[in-house]
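Budget justification aside, the reviewers requested a transparent look at the raw inputs and outputs of the sequence design task funded under Objective 1. We therefore reproduce one unedited record. The lines immediately below are the structure tokens for a 268-residue chain.
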């Protein structure tokens, strides 16, 4: 399939356009942008100079990828916004590139869906198969693990980490780290249980689900603080044989902002 660029689009002569790319009317592709084979860019979209977009992505009307970060310290340095393969970016979503003061890169994985008006700020890292529902927004330096789902209108504070296979409810402000495999909701945001349905759909075994239930029970229902709960989990050899449990322990132990509390509790 040949590349198709609408004559009303503005494509910089130093942009790198792959095979089979479609660029719609009034789209802007700046010099230095890279667009992989088979990707489509909708009308009025902006592909900034820092964009590095993979294969077979779908970028819809008015979306912005690889534009300058919203950081007052940014002074035009060359940085990037890297998007994996087959990711869908819907209307008016904005994915900004990194800053020299951060990683210099914003990185988004493959097979993701960013619904309308979502925002990925500078220096963020987003894994594979992540879904941002309409108007979900992450501030700078946020990390989002594989298969995470953010509900609509959900804002995430800068430097927060969202664990893999996590589901966060809509309209929920997230100022603390959300550990992997959990459901998080209510105001203020709190642990609501294991994301059991999502995990079963992805093939996690009953053994793993039971172990994760016990792990989070020790963290959230025993009255122990996080450090005490982690010590109990580490002492349980059966739990620690599972990689999923070890990932929970590592996530909580390395949290700089602290993990979300259980319902009606604050973390100590």
């Amino acid at each position: 399939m040949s590349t198709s660029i609408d004559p009303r689009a503005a494509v910089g002569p130093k942009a790198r356009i792959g095979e089979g790319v479609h660029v719609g009317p009034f789209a802007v592709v700046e010099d230095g942008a890279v667009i992989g084979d088979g990707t489509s860019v909708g009308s009025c979209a902006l592909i900034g100079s820092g964009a590095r977009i993979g294969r077979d992505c779908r970028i819809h009307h008015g979306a912005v990828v690889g534009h300058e970060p919203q950081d007052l310290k940014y002074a035009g340095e060359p940085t990037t916004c890297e998007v994996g393969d087959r990711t869908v970016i819907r209307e008016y979503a904005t994915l900004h590139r990194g800053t020299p003061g951060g990683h210099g890169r914003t990185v988004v994985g493959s097979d993701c869906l960013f619904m309308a008006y979502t925002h990925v700020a500078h220096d963020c890292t987003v894994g594979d198969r992540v879904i941002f529902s309409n108007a979900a927004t992450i501030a700078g330096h946020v990390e989002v693990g594989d298969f995470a789902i953010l509900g609509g209108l959900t804002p995430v504070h800068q430097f927060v980490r969202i664990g893999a296979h996590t589901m966060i409810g809509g309209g929920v402000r997230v100022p603390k780290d959300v550990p992997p495999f959990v459901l998080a909701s209510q105001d203020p945001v709190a642990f609501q249980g294991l994301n059991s349905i999502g995990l079963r759909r992805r093939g996690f075994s009953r053994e793993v689900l039971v172990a994760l239930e016990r792990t989070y029970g020790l963290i959230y229902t025993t009255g122990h603080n996080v450090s005490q709960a982690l010590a109990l989990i580490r002492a349980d050899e059966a739990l620690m044989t599972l990689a999923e449990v070890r990932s929970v322990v590592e996530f909580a132990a390395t949290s700089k902002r602290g993990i979300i509390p259980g319902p009606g509790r604050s973390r100590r």
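The chain has two domains: 4-159, 200-253. The two ends are 58 Å apart (CA to CA). Computational costs for records of this kind are itemized in the attached budget.
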